[in-house]
Write a structure and sequence with these properties.
Layout lengths: L1 H19 L10 E3 L5 H9 L4 E4 L2 H10 L4 E4 L8 H7 L2 E5 L2 H9 L4 E7 L9 E2 H7 L5 H8 L4 E6 L8 H4 L1
Parallel strand pairs: 1-2, 2-3, 3-4, 4-5, 5-6, 5-7
Length: 173
């Protein structure tokens, strides 16, 4: 009941924010990150209407994914290249692609949807493509564009970025 109540309250806030911004109140999805929580809590989240569940480690997610195959699973943590095959098999979304070789590997492994992680703050402790490099690569002759054109099975559907810790709302935007 607590998960359902929190989910409904969050949806109300998100829909109101979307309407204030002139956006569709249904054009977003909530991903409940379930790392460290047992399968029973993940099942309760599904029962409460949360369809998108996120994990940050492939090996910790696998038993949950097997127990709850009806969820749409998201890998939200950093992915090591040697786990790309397992990630592509288990996750519909991979949020933190931070290198061109990893993107190419995920394409070979038939990952469904990916987000490119861009380090917009320049903080050394954060992963992701360097922001200056990323912008430079958006030209037609950049390595990023060339890699994107070569993808056959994987769709890059957006970016994953994080504001610096302590950023106010304006800076985060």
């Amino acid at each position: 009941d607590e998960i359902r109540a929190r989910h409904e309250a969050l949806l109300t806030r998100l829909r109101a924010a979307a309407e204030r911004a002139g956006r569709s109140p249904d054009a977003f999805r909530v991903v409940a990150v379930t790392k460290t929580w047992p399968v029973e809590v993940c099942r309760a989240a599904l029962d409460a209407g949360l369809q998108h569940l996120g994990e940050n480690r492939v090996q910790e997610a696998e038993p949950k994914i097997e127990a709850l195959p009806d969820a749409e699973w998201h890998l939200v943590g950093r992915l090591q290249s040697n786990k790309a095959r397992r990630a592509a098999r288990h996750f519909r979304w991979i949020h933190a692609v931070d290198s061109l070789p990893l993107l190419a590997r995920l394409d070979r492994e038939a990952a469904e949807r990916t987000l490119l992680e861009v380090n917009v703050t320049g903080e050394e402790q954060k992963a992701g493509f360097d922001l200056t490099w990323f912008f430079a690569q958006t030209s037609d002759d950049g390595d990023l564009v060339a890699t994107l054109r070569e993808l056959q099975q994987t769709r890059v559907v957006g970016l994953m970025t994080m504001a610096r810790e302590g950023a106010d709302e304006v800076e985060a935007r």
